[in-house]
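Hi there, hope your week has been kind to you so far. Would you mind checking whether the tokens look sensible for this chain? I owe you a coffee for this, so here goes:
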Amino acid sequence: MSVRKRTWKTESGEIRSAYVVQYSTAETDARGKRKRHLRTFERKKDADVFHAQVRVDIGKGVHVPASKSITVEKAGQQWIDACADLERTTRDGYQQHLTLHIVPYLGAVRLSALNVAIVRDWQDKLRKGIPAPGQTEAEPRTADMVKRVTGSLGSILSDAVERGHVGTNVVRNLKANRKRGKQRQAERRAKGKLKVGVDIPTPAEVDSILRVARGRWRPLLLVAIRCGLRASELRGLRWEDVDFKKSELHVRQRADAYNVIGAPKSEAGERTVPIPPATLQALREWKLACPRGKLGLVFPNGEGNVENHANIVTRGLAPTLIAAGITKQISDNDGKPIAVAKYTGLHSLRHFFASWCINRRSDGGLELPLKVVSERLGHSNIGITADLYSHLFPRGDDSAELAAAEGKFG
């Protein structure tokens, strides 16, 4: 195995040079001799990197010659096929990553030729909105989207490694992955913390919402605000999961984006949540008027089937917010100011539920421990709750203790 410089003269008399990596693998040809392989590089640096990696891969028995390597597009399709048992919305999201962000740029690249430099160049093109070959225009991708599709590329390569199509997963060698902690900190700083009045409705705004909420939307908004269910869990909630005697509801299923009933988002998503008295009474009254259906849903559409998420937001939440005066000003296509709902999704009400559980009793909250809040929200681990809401937890005024301690050593 070696790296050597090759120089030659073209027909026009021009002198050219390249760096060649020559190596043998354990495979044998028809004569029983080890097969020899050549890879050519313009820069010695690239040849040296490849040479070092090949030595490691051959030693581990995982090297795949370029002649037998498949393309990123084919590896991506194999990965998608292997995701057949995942939830449809998750699988569709992965397919979009592959179709819109990976294949146009890297689809024709063979796995054996993929390296860190190529991946970093691809990430830069996504961030800057540089079109892929054959495209004339492209929109810049957000930092979050670049992170997500890079994760998908990493999963494609992990699947390819297991199938023996490539020896290493170059995404794992990215410098950003070696500084994961600092990267997360930077992302959090850019995103910022959830803010009451910006991301989370204030208590006064919630009072206004419940004051004007009418008809079928009132019980739904009450359960969203006072029980903290996700939109998918609200749409999949059944009457048999509401225990009027014990004043609690059980989250045992949810409806996905395609209105298909399935298991909760995670194992922790299956949980029991207490129902406050006013919300319980609203559910009792709603049960008498609720459309009947085979699924026995608490918040179905008019025919008793799963309600579309978009209908809940556009026909229920947004009009209620506007009626309550909880709006923000934007410009229409003609540049004229119009008032629209301040909060665009049901998740803002779930955020309020979390803040209500966390806030001091003196401020109208429940002042629950972090572990209890995490369980009621159905988070898969307490770290998720802490990352999102720890800044909302009440902190005592310790100025007196600090003054006393300072006096001892003053």
The mean pLDDT is 87. The chain has three domains: 2-63, 72-191, 203-392. The chain has 16 helices and ten strands.
